[in-house]
Amino acid sequence: MTPIPQPPELPSDLPPQVVAYIRILEATIAELTAQVTGLTTRVAELEARLNQNSTNSSKPPSSDAPHVKPAPPKPSSGKRRGGQPGHPKAERTLLPPDEIRTLKPATCRGCAHPLTGDDSNPAVHQVHEVPVVTPHVTEYRCHRLRCPHCGTTTVAAVPAEAATGYGPRAQAVAALLTGSCRLGKRGTSQLFADLFGLPLSPAMVCKLQHRTAEALKPVAEEALMYTCGQPANVDETSWKQGQKRAWLWVAVTTLVVAFLIRKTRGRSAFEDLRDGSTAVHTTDRYPVYTHLDKHKRQLCWAHLRRDFQAMIDRGGSGTAIGAALLACSDALFENWYRVRDGTLTRSTFRSVYIPALRRQVGEFLRTGAACGCAKTAATCGELLPVEASLWTFARVVGVEPTNNAAEREVRHAVCWRKTSFGTDSERGSRFVERILTVIASCRRQKRNVLAFLIDAVTAHRTGAKAPTLVPAQAQQQNVVNPLFANC
Q1: Among 14, 118, 376, 477, which is least packed, fewest CB within 10 Å?
Q2: Is residue 15 part of a domain?
Q3: Which residue ranges have biased composition labelled Polar residues (predicted)?
Q4: Are 391 and 316 contained in the same domain?
């Protein structure tokens, strides 16, 4: 809608009423033009929001609509499906046998001649079976005895380790089923009855969870303290506590993972998680992390790739910038994978590839900040002040260019939240964050989660020292990884 230009001065012989009417029409046209421009911008913003999916935003793939175009299939390698020649052989693990049955052929399969003797190296075929599980019940008969001197009746006290009515293994299994297998209270109760023949009410499952949370308190506190001194991938996801919104925070290091649930997504919750740590943080661009030193922060390139794809999908003047930045990220990951598999040295990567990539990315960001697309310009303008945080992974050993480790660790918790709808109380949240800390850390260290839980519960009941998630090797290396010279 293009307004017709009018001369600033109308002919003097026009009646005043006509001049006034013309001026009103001009003002009306200008107002309508502004409204149309605003509506056009608003429609473009709504269309961009409607077209958001997991490839151009932080939305999870599970939220993609059916019409969203899937990622293009990878080109065929020309190889047959399945294991390739030279791949490590995978066989079933042989266990110590409880019973051995010797089998010998009676006759030759070729000529039926009788066979005798022994094979020095017989073929082994094992049959694995789950034993019938019956509950082991220890009955304490507490006698009441009356004193012949004063007549007072005294009852024998139950030992502290038996006061709960369930042994450490039963308590640990209940915690494992709810925390690791994501079973509900009723499901856990039913499984105990069907699998173990042990009656366990849903209410008792809750009580055992709370007792397990108390047993894991020193374990989780030590794990959290350790992660504060290490480079960590940090992320947060929504949670529910008592029908109110809360947030589950995670810090992921090489060996230990720490979870916290807080009612806020603000900086105070982040400080509870990292407690003033000066180590490198790998994060997304959520504003709560902006106070971090840009030289000790790594921005997630996986998030950036989705932002670059969004620039392309929006069209307009930002499309070329998004395509150029996406190509730079492709080159970055191609060479980084070579560093990880050993075909390219880190020193060559830092001295040859990173300077050129950094120069190109900086030029494209400056061009994008001045382009005509408002959202593309805003994204590029936001990245320019923290451009140094894009390359920290090249300087610091042990830091990855993405925050994928943290996102993988919260995935289990997200699935749990979707089926349990969060927690009802502070005590429930403490169980969730502590059991998740144990599960994730044990998995990273290839330790048996159930065995660890049994040790923790037993130590809590007997007053012994709790087991630790910080292995001896990590305790000796509990220092921040050294920083190399700037690129």
Answers
A1: 118
A2: no
A3: 50-61
A4: yes
DSSP string over 47-109 = HHHHT--TTTSS--GGG--TTSPPPPPPPP-SPPSSPPTTPPP--PPP---S-------SB-T
Task: Output the pLDDT for position 16.
Answer: 79
User: Cβ neighbours of residue 192 under 8 Å, at least 6 residues apart?
Assistant: 170, 173, 174, 198, 199, 200
The Cα 356–Cα 328 span in angstroms is: 10
What's the number of CA atoms in the CB half-sphere (13 Å) around residue 432? Answer: 31
Instruction: Provide the CB-side half-sphere exposure for 423 (13 A, CA).
Output: 24
pLDDT value of position 436: 96
> Is residue 321 one of the residues assigned to a domain?
yes
Is residue 373 domain-resident? Answer: yes
Domain boundary among the residues 395, 413, 439 is at 395
* Residue-averaged pLDDT of the chain: 87
Work out how many domains the chain is built from and give that number: 2
Q: In this predicted structure, which of 75-89, 112-126, 392-406, 419-433 has the lowest mean pLDDT?
A: 75-89
Is 246 inside a domain boundary? yes
Convert the pLDDT of each residue in 42-57 to its tens digit. 777 777 777 777 776 6
Which residue in 201, 203, 198 sits closest to 170, CA to CA? Answer: 198
**Residue 21 has which token pair?**
């009417």
Burial 269-283 (b: 16+ CB within 10 A, else e): bbeebbeebebbbbb
Unique residue bearing structure tokens 């969730």: 432
**391 shares a domain with 433:** no
Range of the domain at 253: 211-275+428-475
